[in-house]
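User: For my dataset I need records formatted as: sequence, then structure tokens, nothing else. Please produce one.
Assistant:
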Amino acid sequence: MDDTLHGKRDKRGDWKPFKFLEYPPVFVWPAQPRRFLRWFFGYPGYILPWNLGYAALSLVVWLYLTPPMTEMESFAPGWILFLLIRNALIVLAVFGAFHLRLYWLRRQGTAFKYNAKWPATGNPVFLFGNQTVDNMIWTLGSGVPVWTAYEVLTLWAFANGVIPYVSFAEHPIYCTVVLLLVPFFREVHFYVVHRMIHWPPLYHSVHKLHHNNVNPGPWSGLAMHPVEHLLYFSGVFIHWIVPSHPFHAIFHLQHLGLVPAQGHAGFDKIVVGERSAIDTHAYEHYLHHKYFECNYTDGAIPIDKWLGTFHDGSPEAQERMDKRFMERAAKQAAKRARKG
């Protein structure tokens, strides 16, 4: 599949799509019901292919890879260790599949790759000087244990009636709606947490570790400081408030844990044939890693657009961002001058 039909490369070999980013027809007025329904049920869209895939995997995990609720009524090492190993293996399989195809085997070369360079080696900013090794250590050594801790606590709370439970059998419509809303809530929670850790003290002590990945790859998705993992996975606490089923919480955590591989893929499309490819929807977040202070979230809710931090990849968006940087720099210079 020829990536020059969909984008162009600059002198450094970096690729960008011709089409600028735009939000789906969700928060628009006047409402566009036909476009919304095409986006919601169509391909590619809200449900297909990615969210359906994550939901299907979560259903398998809930039905076949989660201990019985009676077993989780107490904090026993056996089932806790099982969940930890289970989550680690899922991460190895999903993140590893992205990395194997795109970076190890390089099945499509640099076609649709935003940054022409491959993951860094010999760079002291990363553990052992290797970006991929560094990312895997933070993901498996901190991300998976924190994810598992939240899951253990939440499933224990469900098993003991600490948090409100609702049955799919008794309330199928309500449970389906909650399931469909999980990715929406994820966006809002992620935006709040993400803006918070871009506050300079937290950025330099916590979030900078993740932003060392200026040229991200799949394993960069969960390569975070443990404090960031604690904040990032805390979104599952919504199910301690909103009546839910344990499957909702598992889907929420699987979504939190696995979507970052897709969102940090570094490629705009995964080529699956001579004329077909699957969109990764990674460009919006790639621009965040490139410019740091735009696109704090991505998806269906235009929070960045509402708050003036949206970058759609156009020259006009770049100009607005540069202007914002200059105005802030001028304010900081004036503040230093007054103190001096």
